[in-house]
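Deliverable D4.2, example record:
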Amino acid sequence: MRLPKTVPEDEVKCSIDPNSISNTDPAGQFALGYGAYRDEDLATAETAFKKVIALDPKNPLAYHYLGKTMAEQKRYPEAEVIFKMALDNHLPLEQFLKYYDSLIKIQPTGSETYCIDSCFRYGYYDRAEDLLLLAQLYENWHHFNDAEIFYRRLIAADPNKSTGYLGLASLFEKTGMFADAENYLLEYNIRSNYSIDRELHSFYQRVTGLFPENGEWNLKAGNFQYTLARTAGGSLINDIKMTDPLTGETVYKFPQPREPKELTHIQSRIPMYGTKIPDMRPKIKYRPYTDGIYYFQKAALHLPYHETQLAGVYGKTGDLYNLQGLPDSALYFYEKAIELNPEDAGTRNKLVETYTENHLFSPALAQLDSLYRKKELSVDRQLLLAGFYMQDDRTEEAEKLLADAAQMKPVFDSGLTVLHAKLAVLKDKPKDALEYYNRLYRINNHDPGILYNIARIHAKGGNKTEAYKWLNKAISAGFNYTYVLQHDPYLQMVRAGNEWKKMISAVEGIPYIPNESF
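Output generated by the structure prediction step:
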């Protein structure tokens, strides 16, 4: 339950005529002080709050607001005493409601009643706010040890709120304890559902700016950006790059929006703002690919030379380039990582994948051979290697790999069956190939690649009727690679006559892309 409030503090517009408030009315005097503080009349506010305390020494609100009034004037010794008294006199909500009801019952009716009621009801606050105000008071007063104590008390009072963690981290950063500041930011980031990625981003920017040649801090900043990049999914479209086909320069793939303006915030009159914290979170344009690469490259320059650690930095740099859409750059860093740490099978697999996606057959085959010799090849990579062996006319080695893979695949696997079919074609075993493709057809009778391969096997065997039948099915299913249809040597015997001309003229061709399923 929370105390019902009328309107926000800065929206309490009503004004109270001091002449209408009795010097013996604590609620009226509080409302008078509350309004004066709002209007920056600190002298009147202080006088009113002191009258409240004289009339009601156990008042649960007056000490808090009197302390804020004094702190704003940098009267820290006085404010310290008053805030501690505010802690002692604060009432839990249920008790405050009872106190409030008893006070309002004796409140005289009049034109000021609504305003008094509104100010008093809205004036209730969480006790944690006094802990924060004391922590901030000590910090502004340069009593850093005391500030740390009260930030820790605030965390203990409400460990699920960011206020204490962010305040303590800021204090540690201010006093040069950067590792401790990072620890508290990371602790809260792990503990809470509320992300403080912006704060961490800004923190690492500041620290690496202070220590540009510190490899460890650049590495931490890079790892933070790397985590953002790996978890952000498709939300980083503004950080995708490409190589300009005309200039060869690396450019952003999509038009870049204007840089956000620096967030401005009207500083409150008092540097301490309590638990009602204004949104001062920095507006960050996330570019974790670009920023992560930058930090990792600086880390690589300034870290003490350690082959395994440096290999890890290069490997992650390669990942970021790949995610950003620059696989050519990724290849360089994966290759460097493997040079430094040849035992890293994970990075070697990423290198294979990147080579393959860029149709770099020979270096991909060399890396797969290395994994195979070391017995570090997964089943999927084993099938990829078998396909490469077939392209390299190493059919016996491919057959062994497929047989081994079949032992590890207890159920039907379409990828394995496709490779068996291709191998049968290469070994000139059309019956075996047709059997494999028929198995695939029974699973998926709309795949144009499967339909096309059945057609070409029939054409190679001289069965023109079946060849045309399956070619028509393939074209109907979407097979429209006219270059393949016109140049595949298996189709030589069917590329004649009106039936072929009619069929080929109906195809809206597209360019041939190698390594498709057919």
